[in-house]
Amino acid sequence: MEERNITTTTAATESQAITTNAGTQEAAISDERIPGKLIGAIVAVGSLAFIGILTETVMTVLFPQLMREFNVDTATVQWITTIYLLVVAATMPLSSYLNRRFKHRTLFLAAVALAVLGSLIMIVGHAFPVILIARVIQGMGSGVATPLMINIILEQSPKSKVGRLMGVGSLVITVAPAIGPTVGGAVSSILPWRAIFVIVIPIILLVSLPVGLKCVEQHRPTEEARLNSLQFVSIVLALCGLVMFLNQAGVAVSAAVSGGSATVSAVFAVVSLIVGLGALLFFGWSSKRSFSPLIRLGWLRDPMVLLHLIAYMLLPIVGIGFGYVITNVAQLSLGTSAFLSGALVLPGALIGAFFAPVGGMLYDRFGPVRPILGAFFAAICGPILLLVFSMRLTPVTLAGFYFIFGFGYSLGFSNIMTNALRNIAPQFMPDGNAVFNTCLQFGGAAGTALFSTILSVAQAGSGEEGSDAFRHATAVGGSWTFAMMIAIVAVAVCCLISAFRIGAKRK
After folding, report:
1. pTM tops 0.85
2. What is the pLDDT of residue 275?
3. Which 3 state secondary structure label does DSSP give 424?
4. 414-425 pLDDT per residue, tens
5. Is 358 left (phi over 0), alpha (psi -120 to 50) or beta?
6. Cα–chain-centroid distance for residue 117?
7. Nearest to 250 by CA among 89, 112, 402, 450
8. What does the alpha-carbon distance between residue 258 and residue 236 come to, in Å, rounded to a whole number?
9. CB of 153 within 8 A of CB of 39?
10. How does DSSP classify residue 102?
11. Residues 93, 294: contact at Cβ < 8 Å?
12. SS3 220
């Protein structure tokens, strides 16, 4: 009997000790502090990425003005945005190699140099091809800065704070595209549009550069990684081919609707699709057989991660494309000024600025399912309302319905990548980051090309810009666009639901 009492007492003591240790560990985790230099590094690198994405969407509100200045049509002028996104998407696959091969500070300085050079060319360039070259250089800078910011967060954040810091990082991705049209409209209403890039250069050199030099640190050793140039060329060809397919297919359809010749564009679209898909298949095939692949893709065999990736690629088609659609529908259908059309995006951008970190905090607290699905069930209400009222929109309703979408999108978007990368082995996180960011930028480029195509098809043969027929045609194109947005968000939500079901079965 005495022995039993001793055993019981010992077990109780051990249980109490385990409980105490668990409580101590939990308290220690909850008290993890975010280093000040980490915050500074996120600010420095994130501001570069923010400026890059901001200047990308600044241009969308200026499309009508640029069309007149350079004497180009809607399908041509959208290449100012599309080529930028395409270059960013093509640079992203290099981020895994760059992260392993070079120090963070070296990559940061390269991003600063590219951003400044691209802005200088934008200021002095007075021909459309020169402007496109400047956008290519700026896209390379943003393509280096954005994954660098994510890698710094993933490598250096306390584990209990990853969600909220990824939410802060998401501000760059979600808010910059939203406020770009507002900034562009405001600046262009009082200054020449090139003044935007005059303002950007001092911010980079006087804020981002000194903060980055002081705060960007290296917490992991570099490796003697090798660049697989053949795989890099193949992924660039794949991205270019697929975006060119969307663009030229739209040009062909628009020409056919207006009674013009669509043969050349249709052939170019088919060739682009074949090249794009062929290059993509070759990239996947060679990555499996390469000793040192550009991106390691083995983690994509996990269907849960793959479904997250599909959703993460589909949603930016709507999220980034919305800036183009809102500003152009407002100007070309409702007859608003460039300043007002840009301002219509501001409420949705401000709500995004607040709720992106909140979404990360909800993820840390409640896990992925409710914060992500709840956010996108709210987000899809925005394009549904826009479709219902598409033929009788006003500037106020346009801004209000976009506000609903911006609220849900910013609340849940960054959590998709956070949750996916948490299911990847740590050594493959740079590869996952590269793929997710590539798909993000490709989705944005595809969205701009897709929605500009839909509007161009609707406007074909409707007369001169500013006429009643042209405005009505743009409104019709807007309704088609909103219907497409609903379908895209619905497919993404279905992918996420399937992913969460797989995760639940594993548990």
Report:
1. no
2. 93
3. coil
4. 889 888 988 888
5. alpha
6. 23
7. 450
8. 33
9. no
10. S
11. yes
12. coil
Q: What is the mean pLDDT of residues 291-305?
A: 84
Tokens of 475: 């409104």
Block residue for tokens 């690629």: 313
What type of residue is 423? N
- Alpha-carbon distance 215 to 128, whole Å? 38
CB 140, CB 91: distance < 8 Å: yes
Map tokens 């794949």 to a residue.
238
Q: Which two tokens stand for residue 220?
A: 């992991």
| Cα three-residue angle 329-331-334, rounded to 5 degrees | 75
Both structure tokens of 282: 């070759």
285 φψ region: left (φ > 0), alpha (ψ -120 to 50), beta (else): alpha
Q: Please give the structure tokens belonging to residue 455.
A: 């509007």
**Cα torsion 168, 49, 245, 252: sign:** positive
For residue 368 the two structure tokens come to 């992925």
The answer to whether 82 and 448 have CB atoms below 8 angstroms apart is yes
The pair of structure tokens assigned to 167 is 């939410």
State what percent of residues in the chain have pLDDT above 70.
90
Element (DSSP H or E) covering residue 308: helix 303-332
In contact, 64 and 147? CB cutoff 8 Å: no
Backbone angles phi, psi at 223, to 5 degrees: -125, 160
Terminal Cα-to-Cα distance of the chain (whole angstroms): 42
